[in-house]
Write a structure and sequence with these properties.
This protein is an alpha+beta fold. It is 31% helix and 16% strand. The protein has helices spanning 9-14, 74-96, 129-136, 141-160, 211-214, 223-238, 248-256, 270-279, 290-293, and strands at residues 2-3, 19-20, 35-43, 47-54, 60-67, 107-112, 116-121, 163-164, 173-175, 181-183, 190-191. Strands 3-4-5-7-6 form a five-stranded antiparallel β-sheet. A two-stranded antiparallel ribbon has the order 1-2. A hairpin with a 5-residue loop joins strand 4 (47-54) and strand 5. Helix 4 (141-160) packs antiparallel against helix 6 (223-238) and helix 6 packs antiparallel against helix 8 (270-279). The protein is globular and about 55 Å long. Bound molecules: adenosine-5'-diphosphate. Adenosine-5'-diphosphate is lined by residues 41-47, 49, 62, 64, 105, 121-124, 127-128, 171, 174, 184-185, 187. It holds the Pfam family Pkinase. It comes from Euplotes crassus. Keywords: ATP-binding, Kinase, Nucleotide-binding, Serine/threonine-protein kinase, Transferase.
Length: 319
């Protein structure tokens, strides 16, 4: 996908499209008129997301709408282009694979009009784990095992494609109507040229950022997503992130020292604490590997394949 900055000015005059189609990516022949807009699902830094119904097939989707006024700078256009391209690549690669389950939100198509860029996504009707934990305050360990097993599967699917998500957090983990977990928002994701390559740009969401990302010199790789898993497990079980403070610099200092503690009023098993500490190792090389996570003793007590829909509001009867 080439940005308009790289295409000729004549081409730009003829079309309102800011992206030109890449070879392996069809632009949706449908426009917004093919869909009926439904409820607002949520707003992000760049986008608004609505539920839509395809008027022909009656299928439901989520549509992410980015107003072009937010894409004036070449840098933001380039970022959105990369996000769409990488997300589409990941989603089609998983579809073409033998994987029975995908734990990545599917990106179907994108299209544009004069005002907006539209990204058609798999609808995750039960919204994000962030909203779930806000509603429930904190989750039971059995639920965390169930969600984490699916997150690990999603990360394995990304790793096979040499992709690091780099913004794994509760707000980017979505739940379908069947309660499947889907990793979404590829705004900061990158594909490494090879599995040993490193990236240097500082990015991520403050509470979830890994120590090596804060130190640009060191470079970072797949292990940043494992660190984020540690933050996710802690946050789901405790109800707030481990390094949260009122001051960003203080949070970063705590991250660099991996300084966190467990509140006394919340009962957390030794197995859960051990897995969290293995994810939150300062040295990325000492961090637990993705393949080892699922055989950690935290998972020994078992868990359902999917959490029941009732757990969106009520804790499960088993812990
Ligand atoms: P931004 O890139 O601007 O941060 P997001 O990708 O986070 O935008 O999307 C904004 C909000 O839309 C999310 O916080 C979430 O509530 C909702 N959302 C995003 N994708 C989906 C989806 N596939 N299904 C349901 N809701 C979604």
């Amino acid at each position: 996908m080439q940005s308009s900055g790289k295409s000729s000015p004549r081409k730009e005059e003829k079309s309102s499209n800011i992206f030109s189609p890449q070879k392996n990516m069809k632009i949706c022949s449908k426009g917004l008129s093919s869909f009926k807009m439904g409820r607002l699902l949520g707003k992000g830094g760049y986008a608004k997301c609505y539920e839509v119904i395809d008027l022909t097939t009656k299928k439901l989707y989520a549509i992410k709408i980015v107003n072009k006024s937010k894409l004036v700078e070449e840098e933001s256009k380039r970022k959105l282009e990369t996000e769409i391209k990488l997300h589409k690549y990941v989603s089609s690669s998983i579809e073409d694979s033998d994987d029975k389950v995908s734990n990545i939100t599917k990106l179907y198509q994108y299209f544009e009009d004069a005002k907006n860029v539209y990204i058609l996504l798999e609808l995750c009707e039960n919204l994000s784990l962030d909203m779930l934990v806000k509603r429930r305050i904190r989750l039971r360990e059995v639920e965390v095992r169930c969600y984490l097993a699916q997150i690990i599967n999603g990360l394995k699917q990304l790793k096979r494609l040499n992709v690091i998500h780099r913004d794994l957090k509760l707000g980017n983990l979505f739940l379908t109507n069947k309660m499947e977990v889907k990793i979404g928002d590829f705004g900061l994701a990158v594909q490494l040229k090879n599995p040993t390559a490193k990236r240097k740009s500082v990015c991520g969401t403050p509470n979830y950022i890994a120590p090596e990302v804060l130190d640009e010199e060191r470079g970072h790789s797949f292990e940043v997503d494992i660190w984020a898993c540690g933050v996710i497990i802690y946050t789901l079980l405790v109800g707030r992130p481990p390094f949260e403070t009122r001051d960003l610099h203080e949070t970063y200092k705590k991250i660099q020292r991996a300084s966190y503690s467990f509140p006394k009023h919340v009962k957390i098993s030794d197995n859960a604490k051990d897995l969290i500490s293995k994810c939150l190792q300062i040295d990325p090389q000492k961090r637990i590997k993705l393949d080892k996570m699922i055989s950690h003793s935290f998972f020994l007590e078992g868990f359902p394949e999917l959490c029941p829909v009732t757990t969106l509001t009520i804790p499960p009867s088993i812990s």
